[in-house]
Write a structure and sequence with these properties.
By secondary structure, the chain is of the alpha/beta class. It has 14 helices and 13 strands. The longest helix is centred in the first third of the chain and has 24 residues, at 73-96. Bound molecules: adenosine-5'-diphosphate and ligand VHF.
Length: 374
């Protein structure tokens, strides 16, 4: 088993809060220096690296002397603002010692959901990489509210992987990798060396965060791998304190867990459509519609829809669910929820009779549809 990192050209490396802040005791400058040195080594071997760094809230809590994560949103946002200063200062100092420039990029889901801002972020990141600068990304926690936030940096890391079309995502965390169960709770859990990204069994093994510092736990990492795989990228989940972890991965040593992409990459627009936009509702599909979408590469017609949920508008993203409620696809819907309620189950020829007009013959056109296999 060889690590995919060896042949990757463009990598996103994500480092979690508890690793960075020494389990909340304060930024671990020595460890940061070690990762910066290894990233510099990777860059010297011709790889481009984008860093996704957590730790703003954890470091803010330490600087403010808070023992518990603030519950009030304004306090959480303020703590993140305090901690982000230390975080970026720390990274700047580490990379500066190797004469490498850094850039701070703070994003929210709203930035990624707007096609224009998404493309802007992409060209800024490409420009920085072209200049040999290491972009350091975090969520813009100081302005992020529930409606516009990504919520955890594993997800953000996978969105950035898609954004820059990286071929690998490396998640450094506080466990050796993905285990068959949370090793903090189950001492008999064993490490998974390699699996297929998107394998639904992985989601049942992965639990929540291990400490008050972490956000998503293993589940968000497994889901991040699934998303990254949609753009053809592989994911490694590894213990960040493993000596020389990044250099060893780059030399091909397989450490931790590798979740490998097995499907052809979606086009950049379809990745954006399926992952960056918020889902506004869902459509329940009959078996014929699921077959038409998943096996026959067809558009979704109203006749194959048996029900819906949500108050979506025309042009918004909706989930397509099979009879068991499993999401099989996502797409931009041509009719609002109000209109869809009236035409569901109807043949396309009846749309005009029922609504008095026809916007499009399909409920979701194939070009605006993303299949979610795996
Ligand atoms: N199946 C699993 N394998 C490994 N760790 C797991 C698993 N399920 C849950 N976890 C927990 O996930 C934690 C890592 O996630 P998290 O706390 O969010 O860290 P990070 O800050 O690195 O994102 C581990 O400390 C562990 O307790
Ligand atoms: N944006 C937040 C990090 C959120 C997060 O996902 O944390 P983690 O699970 O430790 O990667 C912060 O900087 O505190």
């Amino acid at each position: 088993m060889t690590s995919f990192v060896r042949t990757a050209h463009r990598l996103v490396i994500k480092i979690g809060s508890s690793l960075l802040t020494n389990e909340g005791r304060g930024l671990d400058h020595e460890a940061m220096q070690g990762w910066a040195e290894q990233i510099q080594f990777l860059r010297k071997t011709g790889k481009s690296v984008v860093l996704v760094s957590s730790g703003a809230v954890a470091e803010g809590m330490r600087r403010l002397g808070l023992n518990d994560r603030p519950k009030a949103l304004h306090e959480l946002q303020a703590a993140a603002a305090v901690g982000q200063m230390g975080l970026i200062q720390g990274w700047e100092t580490c990379f500066r010692s190797y004469d490498v420039g850094t850039a701070q990029i703070l994003l929210t889901r709203a930035d990624l959901a707007s096609r224009e801002r998404y493309l802007n972020a992409r060209s800024t990141l490409s420009t920085l990489l072209g200049w040999g600068v290491v972009p350091i990304i975090n969520e813009n926690d100081t302005v992020a509210t529930d409606e516009i936030k990504v919520g955890d940096n594993d997800t953000l890391g996978s969105l950035v992987t898609q954004l820059i079309e990286a071929d690998g995502l490396v998640i450094l965390t506080d466990q050796a990798g993905l285990f068959t169960a949370d090793p903090r709770k189950n001492p008999n859990a064993t490490l998974i060396g390699e699996a297929k990204a998107g394998d639904p069994n992985l989601e049942t093994m992965a639990g929540g965060a291990g400490s008050i510092l972490g956000r998503g736990g293993m589940l968000t990492k497994v889901l991040a791998a699934k998303r990254a795989a949609r753009s053809g990228a592989h994911t490694a989940i590894v213990w960040g304190r493993e000596p020389n972890v990044l250099n060893r991965l780059a030399s091909g040593e397989s450490i931790g867990t590798q979740l490998l992409a097995s499907l052809p990459a979606l086009t950049a627009r379809k990745q954006w459509l399926g992952d960056a936009l918020p889902v506004r509702g869902s459509l329940m599909l009959d078996e014929g519609a699921v077959t038409a979408l998943c096996q026959e590469q067809k558009s979704l017609l109203p006749v194959g829809v048996t029900g819906l949920q949500g108050a979506f508008e025309r042009g918004e993203l909706v989930s397509c669910l099979d009879k068991e409620g499993k999401e099989v696809a996502r797409g931009l819907v041509n009719y609002s929820a109000r209109e869809t309620t009236k035409i569901l189950g109807q043949p396309t020829e009846s749309i005009e009779n029922v609504l008095g007009y026809v916007d499009e013959p399909e409920l979701i056109h194939r070009d605006n549809l993303v299949l979610l296999q795996g």
